[in-house]
Write a structure and sequence with these properties.
Length: 102
């Protein structure tokens, strides 16, 4: 069994620090080669994100999709932005901001 080698990135998205890990060649089987991404909200720790209520997400996809998006960071930001347009996430974001104000 081969050792996985993840690239690690950190982003600040809407005031949340997120750790992204990316393994482009996760399975390493000829003809079927998904990549693996993980997202973890770090600050605040494990706070919900529009893609996950637990603050952690493990996702397998075609590496060509990640490349087309501009790489793992751009892929994740695009996915977060798209999911954040839902009414549920906007309400949660507003509720969180209200708590900060008081």
């Amino acid at each position: 069994m081969r050792e996985h080698r993840y690239d690690i990135y950190h982003i600040d998205w809407r005031g949340i620090r997120i750790r992204i890990t990316y393994e482009r060649n996760w399975l390493a089987i000829k003809g079927y080669n998904p990549c693996h991404l993980t997202l973890t909200s770090e600050v605040p720790a494990r706070c919900p994100l529009p893609l996950t209520e637990t603050g952690f997400l493990s996702h397998f996809t075609d590496p060509a999709l990640v490349d087309e998006a501009g790489g793992p960071v751009a892929f994740v930001i695009a996915a977060l932005d798209a999911a954040a347009s839902s009414g549920n996430w906007r309400k949660q974001e507003l509720d969180t901001r209200q708590l900060v104000l008081f």
